[in-house]
From TrEMBL:
Source organism per UniProt: Halorubrum alkaliphilum
Family: Belongs to the enoyl-CoA hydratase/isomerase family.
Protein name per the record: Enoyl-CoA hydratase/carnithine racemase
Cleaved signal peptide residues: none
PANTHER family listed in its UniProt record: ENOYL-COA HYDRATASE, IP11341P-RELATED
InterPro entries: ClpP/crotonase-like_dom_sf (IPR029045), Enoyl-CoA_hydra/iso (IPR001753)
Length: 240
């Protein structure tokens, strides 16, 4: 189950199956993808209910899948929706993130852990691995060496380990406050910064796109200033 609610400039998405540590079934993945795609706020905050962020795929469901590859592709689509959303996606991890939960976090733009957060890719211990884009994103985020050691060992990282390896960008008692902080930025600038940093094309193409996007924002900013000045001057012109 995924709950979605707007709170000012932040769309809060809650993975809400605390009795299963927020393990995800196909219906939950569909609901999460829809909630992200429909968000109109400049910032999306994703977190889990209860004492875990997300235990990953519901293994009771996985063991009965007729088409495991289709389930993997569904998880990949959800992760891509998070990564490609116009909104800045902030993931707040409190408690355990395991398997697919780590992969959802990897797709977010900003990952913030509480001091109680822990991370692991335990699939290797029972013959599986993270297939929701994890093998693609993990080395980008952690670097190949740490990514290999993390995924191959199945060991649990605490919040400090996650910060050291780059798996999270900050450790904070209240990850939601980071989402609110980011939401204070101008929405067009937030969107453009995300687009430019997420761009995977060659450097020359990215730099050209960066310059064009900067020009657009400057022109929009200048137009806003001119409009504000015109509004300030208009009463004086009527008085004269």
């Amino acid at each position: 189950m995924v709950r979605s609610r707007g709170e000012g400039l932040v769309r809060v998405l809650t993975l809400d199956r605390p009795d299963s540590r927020n393990a995800l079934r196909p219906a939950d993945l569909s609901a999460l993808r829809t909630a992200v795609a429909e968000a109109t706020e400049p910032v999306v905050y994703l977190h889990g209910a209860g004492d875990a962020f997300c235990a990953g795929a519901d293994l009771d469901v996985v063991s009965t899948l007729d088409d495991p590859a289709a389930f993997a592709r569904q998880g990949q689509r959800v992760a891509s929706t998070l990564a490609d959303a116009d909104a800045v996606v902030v993931c707040g991890i409190d408690g355990a993130a395991r398997g697919g939960g780590v992969e959802l976090a990897l797709a977010a733009d900003v990952r913030v852990a509480t001091p109680d957060a822990t991370f692991a890719e335990p699939g290797v211990r029972f013959g599986l691995f993270g297939a929701w884009g994890g093998t693609v994103r993990l080395p980008r985020v952690m670097g190949e060496g740490d990514a290999l050691e993390f995924a191959l060992s199945g060991r649990v990282l605490d919040a400090d380990d996650a910060l050291r390896t780059g798996l999270v960008s900050r450790v904070a008692a209240d990850p939601r406050a980071v989402a609110d902080e980011i939401a204070e930025g101008e929405s067009d600038a937030l969107r453009v910064i995300k687009e430019r940093i997420r761009d995977r094309r060659d450097d020359a193409t990215r730099e050209a796109a960066e310059a064009t996007a900067f020009e657009t924002l400057v022109e929009r900013h200048a137009a806003s200033i001119r409009s504000d000045r015109a509004g300030d001057e208009e009463p004086h012109e009527r008085d004269s």
